[in-house]
Task: structure prediction
Amino acid sequence: MDPRIVTAVGAVVGIPLVLAGYILLSERLLEALPARLRSRMRPYVWVLPAVGFSTVFMVLPTLNTIVLSFMDKRSENFVGLNNYVYFFTSPATLGALKNSLLWLVFFTGFVVIGGLVIAVLVDRVRYESFAKAVVFLPIPISAVAASIIWRFMYDFQPPGEVQTGTLNAVIGTFGFDPVAWLVESTTNNPALIFVGIWTATGFAMVIISASLKAVSSELLEAARLDGANELQVLRLVITPLLLPTITVVATTVVITALKVFDIVYVLTAGAFDTDVIASQMFSQLAGSGHFGRAAAVGVVLLLAVIPLLWINVRRFRQQEEMR
Amino acid sequence: MPQFSFKPMTRAVALGVSAVLVVAACSGGTTSSAEPSQAAPTSTSPGASAPAASSSTGEIGGELVVWTAWGGGELTAFQNVLKPFEDETGIDVRLTTVRDITQLTINVEAGTSLPDVAFPPPPDKLVEYAQSGVIKPLEGFLDMAAYTKDTYPALLEIGVVDAQHYQLFVKTQVKGLFWYNAKVFTGPAPKTWDELLSISPPAGAKLFCVGLESGADSGWPATDMIENIVMRQAGAEVYAKWIDGTQKWSSPEIKAAFETYGQMVSEANVFGGPNTVLTTNFGRAGKPLFADPPGCLFLEQATFITSFFVEDYPDLKSVDDIDFFAHPDIDPAHAGNVEGFADSFVMYNDTPQAKALMSYLATADAQSLFVAGGGTLAANSTVQNFPDPVFKKAADIAAGAKNLLVDAADFFPADMRTGFYKGILDFTKDQSKLDSILSNLDQVQAASYGE
Result:
């Protein structure tokens, strides 16, 4: 039999067996302990496999990446901070950093505000589920597929030829010359960020909308009776109540903005100054084979995300305490 | 050893993403270089062959481990080549596709098993391996008189160490051909660059079509265009220094090559202007050649491009519709330099089985099976059974070549190559930035060699 099939069967059957065996065996061992100690030990015994797995697959690789970021191209010699110096001085990575900032501000801004506005607006119409479905539609499309769709949208043919790209066909009917959306430096970054917004707004909308449903209608009615107009209701009642949700959505979207890679890779591959830090990491690794620099990019990305994680965790704790 | 812990995953990502994008690029048929983003190598069974049952000709038996970088149609063609050999000799050929040619150097350095016959080691290792006996010379078992008589002369210059040949060439292709629509361009082929540029295209058309888009490898078609200019404008020596990293990018020779290329993609000479060049996929670049009315006269590309023409216009016939002329000379002093690539085999274990296979691959019979597979020339100039008649002309160019020069970009360090691609894209977009682009490439050159 094909050895790969043996391995696959072994993995599918064997791993659950081992885990079940672990629980049974550890229960057996716990039985031997005095009752008080048993109940205190049990959580630790049960959590051990999870801790083990996350150590092997997450903690150790992270530590390894940090170590690699201080090593040279082939991870053979220690080079101190060289890779970080490179990251913050080379024009290529600085350009990528600048573009990532653009993503951070515009992608996050449009996705969160767009999601909020759509959620609030569709809450007041009868065709709410239809409208939400339309906005949500891009979510199941993988980023690579979405980017390929947008390649066709942004397609450029020389002036005078039939415009196969939707956007250029549309502006052509108004008599404008076609624009090379992904090449011109004034349009290429906005074009990429727009694809991101298109794919992510539905996510923000769904989460915010769900939390909007939880705002009690009595509260809104009371505000209206007290003379608040709709904008004031939105600004002074709804938004503060939604704030915890918006924070969670915003941090998630910020992390998405920082790690965006596929859209850039598929649409421009970082050409014409559209590189972002995640695509820099990829090209350092797969293009140049420079493990040290790639790892340094990864570590910078990790450090950039940590404050957001901290905010998220803190908010989560507060909510738990409120319960 | 370095920590390769996350490399295979990234490669798989690269493979997945690029497979969507550059399916077309792979079908082109470039072979001699390792694809940077291809699948991880497959390991093979131990390289030691079983002892020969008999050393006489005819039935030999035993087995033979062969590595190739080919896949797809090229692999099928090679399997067809091997079949008669296996039937006749009874040798069991264990064929493995190894995409990453550095696997070979890794095995040599680790002292683990090597294939009996495989693609050559990287050029910078060839001399070392020849002198240390890792690879075995053809002299000693091959009928060298017959081999040198029939093989294209330019190929015999490659892979020679201490007057002994190590690479047995089986296939070759020429690059830098100017393709045209034979119904539109009917004049004589220009002999010089100035003649080429002075041809006046029909009203509404431009002289050239160029398409540089190719996903993450965008820009590569222009590397061939610039390389063809360098070798004809500045000569083979500058070209060799350029590969070695000792020829500065800001030097007058390379700068002049960029400027000459700039003539081809200028607003005045290229179909649709630079934005069209940058957004058109290389495979679709030739479409305006055959449009009615035509958008341009010429497209510079290697032989594989005909399959893309036929995809767009299935009724096109070779020679009657699709034809090409050789890259015109630029400086007559450097006439005869031709860019091409060639596939060769090298023997790593001199077993009777390996010698038998190498001897067989040198024959016209074996190489005609490669040619019958389509899309390539044989290394043997007498093999002319091309399924596509347009290859006959390519064979004439190969026969007339004084130097068959490799694709320089394939031999650049990875950073240099990607920098070259990016520099080409930036220059094509805005030619006035040439000086800053070249000085940036100088920095990449200084940093990337010998790293």
Remarks:
- The radius of gyration of chain B is 22 Å.
- DSSP finds 19 helices and 13 strands in chain B.
